[in-house]
Specification:
single chain, about 350 residues, alpha/beta, seven-stranded mixed sheet, four-stranded antiparallel sheet, 11 strands, globular
């Protein structure tokens, strides 16, 4: 776990632990205007994260995970995207109504983001030392020498070998895992309160994935940051997350402490994701796959958006959209049969 063992157990369904959350997203809606129509990428998402807590946001590609993060950070491509509603409260301040200058100051200094493709996120014609040092030159007024020394310290902290000798190397001279460490170092540079890691291990092999996740968890404990970990891989988050929020068709369909969700998912979509994970005790058996495809955000089905793919779907699922409600203390699920789904697995 990424912080004190009992913290997740005392969190409510939205993650408030003994006071106001570090970040609170309330009923966020994001849409993209296209030639074909309005694509509703995020449809009333609400979640929160506390200092020292790791929230994993899970879902298939196109579920709205990354768009939600971009809206939080204020880096949404506008146009065609726009925030259509909701609030994003960071330490009580609504970022969506804050002046752009204030949001720019918060980015990097108090909030930072780690992107999934480090090679395209780093400038190929500038050394990694220059890019790391830029944070200190811009935000702290450091001299070039001071900035370089801090860059070396950061590279050491994320365990890049021979940091002083490699500080003038360029991104292409590092392996994928080392480039991801540089991205983590850049996010940590000014010791922010919140880090959003968007698929930080997607392009890495399994061994390097584990190393990067272990490093993130260790640094998060050290700095007691809030961490939002965006991923489609349930296996990646098992050992580092405190809570999980599962997204489907731009909505949160389930939230739960990580151990409870793995033991007894309360939504058929989450259940399907868990059953899709390869297991050693299923050797020789066909791997389960959720049938069908995620809905097109231009044409989201009525009722429960998962009903065309759900093995439990009945008439009410087509007619009525289920509310995100607690099937058990500290949990929420948007399913008409949430209690029955838990009973099936418990």
């Amino acid at each position: 776990m990424s912080h004190d063992a009992g913290a997740a157990d005392t969190a409510d369904a939205n993650g408030a632990v003994g006071g106001a959350p570090l970040l609170e997203v309330r009923d966020l809606a994001v849409e993209f205007r296209t030639r074909e129509g309005v694509a509703r990428a995020v449809n009333g998402v609400s979640y929160s994260v506390n200092a020292g807590e790791t929230l994993a946001v899970l879902g298939e590609s196109g579920s709205g995970k990354s768009v939600t993060a971009q809206a939080i950070m204020g880096i949404l491509d506008t146009p065609p995207g726009r925030v259509a509603g909701g609030r994003v409260l960071f330490r009580g301040r609504d970022l969506l109504t804050a002046p752009e200058e204030e949001r720019r100051r918060l980015r990097g200094e108090r909030m930072a983001m780690i992107f999934q493709d480090a090679l395209s996120s780093l400038n190929p014609v500038l050394s990694v030392g220059y890019q790391l040092g830029e944070m200190f030159r811009v935000h702290r007024g450091a001299s070039r020498r001071e900035a370089r020394d801090r860059a070396v310290e950061l590279m050491d902290r994320v365990r890049i070998p021979a940091a002083r000798e490699r500080v003038n190397d360029y991104p292409h001279q590092f392996s994928g895992g080392m480039r991801q460490r540089i991205m983590i170092a850049m996010a940590l540079a000014l010791e922010p309160d919140l880090i959003i890691a968007d698929e930080p291990t997607t392009a890495l092999d399994v061994t390097v994935q584990a190393q990067v996740m272990e490093l993130l968890a260790e640094l998060q404990r050290e700095f007691r940051m809030g961490l939002i970990l965006i991923t489609h891989d349930l296996g990646v988050v098992a050992d580092v997350a405190d809570r999980i929020a599962v997204m489907y068709a731009g909505r949160i369909v389930e939230t739960a402490p990580v151990k409870e969700l793995y033991a007894a998912p309360a939504h058929p979509y989450t259940k399907g994701l868990l059953e899709s994970i390869p297991r050693l005790d299923h050797k020789g058996k066909e791997l389960y796959a959720i049938k069908g495809l995620p809905p097109n955000p231009l044409n989201i089905p009525p009722g429960c958006p998962f009903h065309p793919r759900c093995p439990r779907a009945v008439d009410i699922c087509v007619r009525e959209r289920p509310a995100l409600e607690p099937p058990a203390p500290g949990r929420t699920s948007a399913c008409h049969f949430r209690e029955e789904v838990i009973d099936d697995r418990a």
